[in-house]
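Minutes, project check-in
Item: structure for the 156-residue chain
Input as provided by the requester:
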Amino acid sequence: MSLHEFTVPGLDGKALPLAAYEGKVVLVVNVASECGFTPQYAGLEWLYETYKDKGFTVLGFPCNQFGGQEPGSPEAIQSFCSTKFHVTFPMAAKVDVKGKDQAKVYTFLTTGFEEPKWNFHKYLVGKDGKVIKAYPSKVEPESAEMKADVEAALKR
């Protein structure tokens, strides 16, 4: 299996075929607007802007499973992300990232890696669509570890 085999609904309601990211490095993140980790949106946007021209993207998946911290509608989420953090990376529709209603893309991401324990859990996916590494919420997008791992993945 590969991340590229999935098509998910985008935050705008249109289909978001992940095959579009074939040959790119992708950081998949479950996001929330009312979380203590929400300021990581700024770091995610920085990471995206820094590496997007080298074949990298961030893909946000809003999720309301952790403390009800993403209660908004797609329009509210989009407005929050664009006005507060100037997010320009792609965003999927709200999903469940664990449990019985886990989105199929997250079933794929968590095969061999642990499920998110909270918002802003990250999965680094290589150009081939396979998960390289997972990061807990506390790992900042602009951390030395994240930058080094993204740069290494881009060289593969």
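Outcome recorded: Residues 3-155 form a domain with the Glutaredoxin fold (CATH 3.40.30.10).
No further action items on this chain.
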